[in-house]
C-alpha cells in the first residue's frame, strides 16, 4: 500500500493552434495516506488537472510525481495501468455508470479479468452495503436517483481496496442535502478504509469540513492549511 505522494515542481502546459496554456505552474505538494484533503478554487485554477496527474491519467510537462519515492510515470503504459488499478480509485462528477448493467455488475467491472485475493461478488456486495445500497443490487442506473448512482460509483471506486481515493466534483450534480450525504460517506470511508482522499470541490462549506484545505488559482497553490477536522 502506497503511503505518500509527492509532487515536485509539477508543471503542465497544453499546446495547440500555436498557443499554449499553463494549467499547473511548478506545484510542490505532498500527501500522506489517511489524509482527507479538499482542493478548492475557481474554474480553470488547475484542480482537475492536478487530480488527473496524481491519478496517472495524464503526464506532466515537467516535474516529478512519486509514490513512496517511486516515479510511477516513468514506467510503461501497462505497469502504470496496473498501478492505477491497485492503488487508486476515481469518483467523477459524471457517474459514468454503464446503463445496461445493474448496480452490482457496475461495481464488479473493475474486477473483471483481474486476479484478486477475495471473492469478487462478495466484495462487491460488501461495498454496496457500506454505501447503503443492499436493496439496490439488481437495479439499473435508470432506476436509481442521482445520489444512489453516485453511491454506486463510490462503491465501484473502492471495490479493489485502493490506497487513494480521488474525487473530482463528485457532488456537483447533486442537490445540497444529497451532496452533503455523499461528502460524509467519503469521510466515513476515509476513516474505515484508511485510504487517502483528495476531493476537488467548488463548495467552500464542504471543503471547510476537511482535515486539510488546498486553495488553487491560475495553476498555483495560494494556500495549504489545516481544516476544522484535523
UniProtKB/TrEMBL annotation:
Example GO molecular function: ATP binding
Keyword vocabulary terms for this entry: ATP-binding, Nucleotide-binding, Transport
Domain ABC transporter, residue spans: 5-230
Source organism, top-level taxon: Bacteria
GO cellular component: membrane protein complex; plasma membrane
Cytoplasm in keyword set: no
Keyword check for ATP-binding: yes
Matches recorded under PANTHER family: ABC TRANSPORTER ABCH.1 (PTHR24220:SF86), IMPORT ATP-BINDING PROTEIN (PTHR24220)
Family: Belongs to the ABC transporter superfamily.
Annotated protein name in UniProt: ATP-binding cassette domain-containing protein
Lineage summary: Bacteria, Bacillati, Bacillota, Bacilli, Bacillales
Amino acid at each position: 500500500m502506497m503511503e505518500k505522494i509527492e509532487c515536485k515542481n509539477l508543471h503542465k502546459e497544453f499546446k495547440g493552434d500555436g498557443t499554449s496554456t499553463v494549467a499547473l505552474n511548478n506545484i510542490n505538494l505532498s500527501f500522506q495516506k489517511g489524509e482527507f484533503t479538499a482542493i478548492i478554487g475557481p474554474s480553470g485554477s488547475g484542480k482537475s488537472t492536478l487530480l488527473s496527474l496524481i491519478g496517472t491519467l495524464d503526464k506532466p510537462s515537467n516535474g516529478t510525481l512519486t509514490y513512496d519515492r517511486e516515479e510511477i510515470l516513468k514506467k510503461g503504459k501497462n505497469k502504470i495501468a496496473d498501478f492505477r488499478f491497485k492503488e487508486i480509485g476515481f469518483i467523477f462528477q459524471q457517474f459514468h455508470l454503464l446503463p445496461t448493467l445493474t448496480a452490482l455488475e457496475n461495481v464488479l467491472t473493475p474486477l473483471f479479468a483481474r486476479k484478486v485475493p477475495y471473492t469478487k461478488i462478495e466484495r462487491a456486495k460488501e461495498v454496496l452495503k457500506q454505501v447503503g445500497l443492499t436493496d439496490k443490487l439488481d437495479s439499473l442506473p435508470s432506476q436509481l436517483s442521482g445520489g444512489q448512482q453516485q453511491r454506486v460509483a463510490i462503491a465501484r471506486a473502492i471495490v479493489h481496496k485502493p490506497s487513494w481515493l480521488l474525487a473530482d466534483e463528485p457532488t456537483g450534480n447533486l442537490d445540497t442535502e444529497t451532496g452533503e450525504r455523499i461528502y460524509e460517506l467519503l469521510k466515513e470511508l476515509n476513516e474505515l478504509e484508511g485510504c487517502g482522499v483528495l476531493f476537488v470541490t467548488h463548495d467552500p462549506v464542504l471543503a471547510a469540513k476537511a482535515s486539510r484545505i488546498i486553495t488553487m488559482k491560475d495553476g498555483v497553490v495560494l494556500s495549504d492549511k489545516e481544516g476544522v477536522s484535523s
